[in-house]
Amino acid sequence: MHIEQNKPLKSLNTFGLNVKAREFVSIRSEKDLIHVFDNYPEKEKFVLGGGSNMLLTKDLEALVLHLEIKGIKIDSGENDTAIVEAAAGENWHDLVLFCLENNLGGIENLSLIPGNVGTAPIQNIGAYGVELKDVFHSCRAYDVESGTFRTFLKDDCQFGYRNSIFKQTLKGKVVITSVKLILTTKNHRINSSYGAIQQALENSGVSNPSISDISEAVIKIRQSKLPDPVEIGNSGSFFKNPVITHSHFSDLAEQFPEIPSYRLENDQVKVPAGWLIEKAGFKGKRFGDYGVHDRQALVLVNHGNAKGKDILQLARLIQMTIKRIFDINLEPEVNIID
Ligand code: EPU
User: How far is the CA of 296 from the centre of ligand 1 (A)?
Assistant: First the structure.
């Protein structure tokens, strides 16, 4: 194993930020991981997966462990299901395509989400009516303190909206090395409830969609409003959709009758952050090389040579403005490294 010095990370974070890792090592197996922890116990470590959910505002002083462990295998499951085990360094969308090729259903709605398999459980990735937790079986992770591997079953993971135990109490304490999903081999549970999917299927003249049709619909929707990180640096939704009380929502609805909402349990209401940001006038705003995407206001973008600090400053400005206009606190969805 070779530790590289001053490694540029521009191509390893989807925001395309030009920062460096003072020390960087590729982790291609669980053995590599054990080796690094055993041999460099004193070094602070930073685990980098697909780099798709982070805002790097400065060079990293810690030893960066780039997870590149590969491999996907299918095991048979019970009652028309299969268990697919994928290593942390597999690209998420490649896994989706692999599953479609093998007629395995369950993650087609999660097509084209940037990032790697190992980070998917950390924020319980979700889109178009499906979350990772809906198909999650378990994951295997290295426990930094004990130096052993542990298995986390679904119920251990405390999955919530873009949240899990790995983002909370286990943050920095475990490194996920593989993930197991329970997928259907037949009688797939097609989820086309999301309005935009229905519209896309209708546009393509599909009335009885297969899992591949759903995937194609999702890909079309995402491509129509979310920027491709290869072309324009971004990290998907920058903020979470906020949840407010019903009485707060009623007050806002008097002032803004067109405000969209999703009713939740316990007298709570979820409001799309993209709408709030658009209403506050930020959609499509560009400040030099950074700004707000012109087709989805929840996405902050790097048009070229933006600095992480600039994007962070814009995020703070958006938060303050949303607080002032709507009295709502927007919480970042991306991991801010500052
Ligand atoms: N909206 C606007 N203006 C905008 C953007 C959105 O008014 O510029 C309003 C519209 O009313 C729209 C609603 O917000 O109907 C919802 O927008 P969208 O369907 O684009 O979804 P979202 O709530 O903004 C969430 C996830 C996305 C996921 C989509 C689809 C979060 C933080 N984001 O976005 O996930 O793809 O739903 O399920 O929950 C991600 O996490 O990185 C991500 C892209």
Answer: 7
